[in-house]
Amino acid sequence: MIAAAALCPCPPLLAPGLTGQEEALPELRAACAAAVARLLAAAPEVIAVVGPDERTGPWPPDGRLDVAAYAPAVVRAAETAGAGGRPSLPLSLGIGALLLDEAGYAGPRALHGVAQTEPPAGCLALGREIAASAARVGLLAMGDGSARRSLSAPGYLDERAAPFDAAVERAVRDGDLAALGALDPELAAALLAAGRPAWQVLAGGMNAAPPETKILYADAPLGVAYLVATLVPRP
Amino acid sequence: MNDDAAARLREQLTRSPGPLRLGGSEFAPQRPLVLAIVNRTPDSFYRPGVTWDAVAAMDMVHVAVADGADILDVGGVPAKPGPEVTVTEEIRRVVPFIERVRAAYPDLVISVDTWRHEPARAMCAAGANLINDTWSAWDPALPEVAAEFGAGLVCSHVGPQRPRTRPHRIAYADVVADILDRVLPLAERAVKAGVDADRIIIDPTHDFGKNTWQSLEITRRLAELTATGWPVLLSASRKDFVGETLGTGVEDRLAGTLATTAVGAWLGARVFRAHDVRETRQALDMVASIRGERPPVRALRGLA
Questions:
Q1: CA angle (B89, B207, B180) in 5-degree steps
Q2: Looking at the domain assignment, is residue B17 inside a domain?
């Protein structure tokens, strides 16, 4: 059973020190911290992190983000050895692990990569599998909306991006799991919306009944849509 | 002294890099410092007379501080030959100005570019924190003045050149060795005179007692100076070796100055004497970030 779920984006800039002297996007960081705090408040036995990856499969739970892959000097300055000798995770799971660390979570965790190309059916099935793995599972779904939200966006402007992201936000707000499950993988891929597989895992893991939802952040200040939300099944 | 003995002496006179203390400030070895030039002269080589007027000079101080200067370097006598500036006149040009700057900026580190102990004493009494003795201990009483006031001292190298003269056919078997053999004993002498070792800076002194080839050589081999552990001052701003190297007049020497600054910073110089404070600060910040010692102001590219 999913006791609570949180959606968070996974830009590398969430890693400490990566944006330089200025910690960029403090509101986004605060929203992610609040979402994870809500997850922990549900007293889960285990937290499952799902995030887009090259292929679908589990990662070692002690894995961490390899910050040096993005900013070698940050790691040298901190005198840490990248992932500190732990397995290096893909970005999405690495940021998820980081958010759990920053929240002080030391309990059991399970890390699942989901292929960007994983069809919706496979995502939904993985969600059900994760939900069935323990009586109280906290689900942290890592993923971003479109990276084509503006002319200066990493993927340049695509006019379809804003409506796509708005539809995702609406589905999450309404707890409309069916709508999330029906997101078009090809359109999502075309819009560089990397969160699609993780959102569909979430849709598969939650009960059919619409959960209680809260949107904590929904904006695209750097041309990539970031959505932070919590979804908690109603008693 | 044979080469081996000289090398052994140099070895003895090195130190481990530590903080640089100037006035009440302490600067870590990784932090490059900009020493902003403010000339109280009518006839210095770059933009002569631009801060001859006291109000203009104070305005330049405000700009230099806003642009990131860590230290001011105030001078009342040009380095080049010219009309005599008496001790009394030098004091008249510089001391009231130091008092004014000190009143406006109680904590700003003030350096004075002077080579005679009488003006140096009056300037330290007025609030100067560092004696930039560009003429390499021509007046041997300067360390005592620095010690008396708790001020710092720059130990420089001018070869056989006397104050306010130009180099003429000066030759060195090894210019860098000559510099080391001059500035390291000067630093030792200053410590013995009571100057705090953390307030001593060494300066190879580009252009002074050097032709352009020699100034280029000491820039290329600056690591041999920084390896001594003493903080190294790089004073290259718009100097003739830049002009001769690029074939440009003083107004067109900024790029050459900044290139020299970047190389010097990379090789470990810690203090940079500059006319162009903002540009120098930017060049030093860029080098510090390349070295991995200063995070970018804001890094978002590719990280969203």
A1: 105
A2: no
Using CA atoms, how far apart are residues A125 and A65, in angstroms rounded to an integer?
27
Domain that holds residue B278: 28-290
User: Is B229 contained in some domain?
Assistant: yes
**By three-state DSSP, how is residue A160 classified?**
coil
Of B292, B298, B303, the CB nearest to A11: B303
**A116, A172, A134: which is closest to A48 by C-alpha?**
A134
Q: Is the pLDDT of residue B219 over 90?
A: yes
Q: Over the range A41-62, which residues count as b (16 or more CB within 10 Å of their CB) and which as e?
A: ebebebbbbbbbbeebeebeee
* B131: confidence class by pLDDT, cuts 50, 70, 90: very high
Min Cα separation A72/chain B (Å): 9
Chain A interface, Cβ < 8 Å to B: 11-13, 17-22, 24, 70-74, 76-77, 147, 154, 222-224
**What is the model's pLDDT at position A81?**
43
- Domains of chain A in sequence order: 2-232 (3.40.830.10)
The model's pLDDT over A101-113, given as tens digits with 9 standing for 90+, comes to 999 999 999 999 9
Q: CB–CB of B297 and A20 under 8 A?
A: yes
Task: Look at chain B and report how many structural domains it folds into.
Answer: 1
8 Å CB contact of B298 and A73: no
Residue pair A3/A42 in contact (Cβ under 8 Å)? The answer is: yes
CA B134-B230-B121 angle, to 5 degrees, is 40
Q: Find the CATH number of the domain harbouring B65.
A: 3.20.20.20
Query: Residue A76: which pLDDT band, with cuts at 50, 70 and 90?
Result: low
Reference B134, options B170, B100, B161; nearest CA is B161
Residue with tokens 């200025």: A22
Calpha distance A95→A111 (Å, rounded): 11
What amino acid occupies position B256?
G
Prediction pTM value: 0.89
Q: How much is the pLDDT for A235?
A: 81
Contact A18 B299 (CB under 8 A): yes
Nearest by CB to residue A222, choosing from B296, B297, B300, is B300
Residues of A in contact with B304 (CB under 8 A): 11, 13, 147, 154, 222-224
**d(CA B287, nearest CA chain A) in Å:** 13
Residue B127 to residue B111: CA distance in whole angstroms: 9
